[in-house]
Specification:
This protein is of the alpha+beta class. The protein has one domain: 3-Layer(aba) Sandwich (Aminopeptidase). 27% of the residues lie in helices and 34% in strands. Strands 1-2-3-4-5-7-6 form a seven-stranded mixed sheet, sandwiched between helices. A hairpin with a 2-residue loop joins strand 6 and strand 7. The chain is globular, with a radius of gyration of 14 Å.
Amino acid sequence: MSIKFRVKRFQELTTEELYKILRLRAEVFVVEQDCVYQDIDNKDQKALHVIGHKNDDIIAYTRIFDGGDYFDIPSIGRVLVSKKERKYGYGHDLIKESIIAIKTHFENQKVKISAQTYLQKFYESHGFKMIGKEYLEDGIPHIAMII
């Protein structure tokens, strides 16, 4: 079974979808990465949500922003694939779909991310280039990257 993607505005999310997204974000960012931080940050309402479905499960997710809503140019954040699904390479599909969604909805060719440093080569494989220096975000080393 392959992954299928949908892009939704916050208001279009069902209560069940929102619950599954927030649960998956907590599983990956809070529990798996052992990082206590405020995930629910009042930014979801401005974002478009790129949701990867496999059967009835949400297994991949990003939120994307137009320029000025998070960074000065469009951006991708909260990038995740469920741990049990990573072996299938869905992260690559997720980034491609997120870039397409930005170009479709925001009509902009540039995209910025705040990437965990250990994923630099992954993002470079999608055309991103590091800008600036490494920094800590929620206690985890990050780098700014742009395409």
